[in-house]
Design goal:
Elements (H helix, E strand, L loop, with lengths): L1 E7 L6 E5 L2 H17 L4 E5 L7 E5 L3 E8 L17
């Protein structure tokens, strides 16, 4: 399971979307990044793979960062989101 996390301006809570496959997570990451790079605000609609009725729409100009991380099974260990010097 992979997490695509979006940091939003003036919001302490990120928006997190899960994807089962790395390729799907990378595609979503690329879509969000392209929207951020374009400089033209547009709406981004994110959906849940498990329940397509769950949706959130946000304005691309409000996204300040996007990252992909692997969801760890037990919460301890595994890969952490973000960057660190630990391997």
């Amino acid at each position: 399971m992979y997490l695509v996390e979006l940091s939003i301006k003036l919001s302490p809570m990120p928006i997190v979307v899960q994807r089962k496959e790395l390729g799907d997570a990378q595609a979503l990451y690329g879509d969000v990044r392209s929207a951020m790079e374009s400089g033209n605000p547009r709406l981004l609609e994110l959906t849940c793979e498990k329940d397509p009725q769950k949706k959130v729409t946000l304005l691309s100009s409000e996204v300040v960062a996007v990252q992909i991380s692997e969801k760890s099974a037990g919460g301890a260990g595994g890969k952490r989101p973000g960057f660190s010097f630990d391997s």
